[in-house]
Structure formats: C-alpha cells, structure tokens
Amino acid sequence: MPAPRLEIDLDKVRHNARTLVDALSARRISVTGVTKAVLGSPDVARALLDAGVRALGDSRIENIERLRRAGVLAPMTLIRSPMPSQVDRVVRAADVSLNTELDVVRELSSAARTAGRTHGIVLMVELGDLREGIRPADLAAAVRATLRLPHLALRGIGTNLACQSGVVPDATNMTELSTLATGIETTFGVTLEIVSGGNSANLDWALAGSDTGRVDDLRLGEALLLGREPLHRRPIEGLHTDAFTLTAEVIEAKVKPSRPRGTLAQTAFDAAVPLTDRGDRRRVIVALGHQDVDPTDLTPPLGIDVLGASSDHLVIDPGPHHLGVGSEVPFRPGYRALVRAMTSPFVTQVVLGGGTSATTARDPEATVR
Ligand SMILES: *Cc1c(COP(=O)(O)O)cnc(C)c1O
Predict the structure, then answer these.
(1) Centre of ligand 1 from the C-alpha of residue 34, in Å
(2) Which one is predicted more confidently, 367 or 320?
(3) Ligand 1 touching residue 59 (CB < 6 A)
(4) Minimal CA–CA distance to 174: which of 23, 29, 25, 19?
(5) Which residues are identified as catalytic?
(6) Whole-model pTM?
C-alpha cells in the first residue's frame, strides 16, 4: 500500500450525514453538505447525497467544477464570496453563491446574462464573528440593489459564526437572523427560501430543542466528516470520529539521547525542545511532515507521543510499540490536518466503503499521486 495515505471510510461518512440529516429534519432544517475539506471529492459528495443532504457547498469553484465534471447533478452553492475574476465560472458551475459585496453581485448578474442562466444569491450577514458579512443595518439596501439586478434570484440570507473569532451561535444571534429574514420579507414582499444559520458550530443550538425560528439550513462539513463540533472539538454522540485515517511509514528507528547537544537556536517549525533529560530513548522517524499534514493536529495511536515535526520528518516516541523501518503508523487527523493531507500531492487518497475498496478508482480525476 502507498504511504502516506489517507483512507476515507464512506460508510462512516454516510452514517454521520444520515444521522444529522434526520436529527435536523425534525427541526425543519436541511443540510448543505460542505465538501471543501475533501477538495470536492465526488465519492464523498455521493455519500452525502445518499444520506439526504439537500445540496452541496464548497468554498472553491475548482471543487464545484470537479463535482460537475464527475457528473454530480445536485444543487451546489459556492460558500465563499466569489472572486470577481471567477464570476463566469461561478455562474456556470454553481447554482447559488454566498455574497457580501454588491460589486460582486453586479458582476454575477452580467456573467449570468452572458451564460444565459439565473444565478441564486444568498446575502451573508455579519452577526458578531467578524468574518464575512454585510452589517445588519446595511442589509436592506443590499437586498434592494440585488432585487433590481437581472439574471439573479435572491434565494435567502445567511450568517457564519465561530470560524474567525469563536463566537458561539446562540438564541440571541440566531433570533437576530430570523428577525432580519422576516423584516426583509415584509419590506420587499419577497420570500426568502434559504435562511442559512451557519456551520457545524450551530449544531448544539439547533439540536438543543428550543425554537430555531426561520433558520432552515445549515452548512455542515466537519460534523459530517469527522463527527465533531468545532466549538469544543467534542465528539458528537452517535457519530463516527474515525472516518479518516492517515497512515505513514517509518524510515528510521534508533535509540538516541532525549536532549539535543550543542548550542540551541530556532527550530524549523518552532517545535519545543524537551527540558528534562530522560536518558537514552527510542526515537522513530515517520516519513510525514508539514508538507503532507498539520502535524500538530494528529492523534497518534495510544502510547505513541509526537515529539516534533519539520517539512518531511515526524519524530515520535513509540512508547510500548515495536516500530521498525517499514512499519506503518495510523494517525487520526483533525480538521486542519485533514485539509492539508487532502491538499498535499504527496498523500494518496484511498476510498473505502460501500462494499468496495479502491485507490480512488471510482473518481477518474482522483488518481494516485
Ligand atoms: C467551511 C464553511 C462551512 C462548513 O464549516 P464546518 O465547520 O466544517 O461545518 C460553512 N460555511 C462556510 C461559509 C464555510 O466557509
């Protein structure tokens, strides 16, 4: 088997998605399955659609185009405000985009005219987290301007919390979003079909049992893929947290002193140098580094300690494990590690599940790299 390799268990992803789709549908909230962490993998997208997600979302037009090329027909939303240089691609591949700038919305309108299409617009509102979004006081003007533009359909409004500043989605900011939605509908005589409340960080709020107001959509990535909520990175009950495994190969196994010798200056990636001398210890090098993964976001097997990493070397204390050259070590990636591993040309993706095991064979573009 190639190494390093990222194994994706589609059955576990499908189970996670189905569990959350069911739980949220009881609250009349649908799920947009976010595929950016898996670079728009058609295999993962199909598992999510199988499980009942209403639409797919991705922050990169390249990923949405990849899904289209693979023949995925589901509704797709670009969940990052489009780059003006990409509006032509956006209106061709995506049905809807999340928007915060009228200049971009105007460009989408003329690109949609050229493409002979109607493009859906969701206006994003800034509710405290200070990432993307129109300030609430400016929303009505943005709606008015959008409604005047041809070849566009105002589909709804949305917000995104937690990602930038860690602001928790709660009754206060979610009620503010609902109130804005109702206000827009009354003022302009329109129906906002999408009120997109946020991301995986909204799950605690959405499933707590209290009123979810007008929110009828959540854009979920991490919860579906890794079975965790991002506010405290706690596992979500009933979900698999092990759908992804990153396996790497040992290239050196020796006994060495636990403290470096010589004058110490900076390390390549700011790794901490141990203060206590534990004598001679077994030290194992795994062929994995910052170019493959975020090594600080990996959980090793029980008993193994990650001592540090540079671009291409991950040094571990193997604890009770007998790891020789050529041994394989499986790690559990967090979200940051998953994104980097998926993006690295050095990591082979292996799709498992659905009764088959194939080195990404089902998606012709995801060839072994
Ligand atoms: C990444 C992203 C999501 C999904 O976030 P998760 O925490 O992975 O659920 C949703 N909305 C927007 C705008 C995003 O950028």
Answers:
(1) 7
(2) 320
(3) yes
(4) 29
(5) 36
(6) 0.94
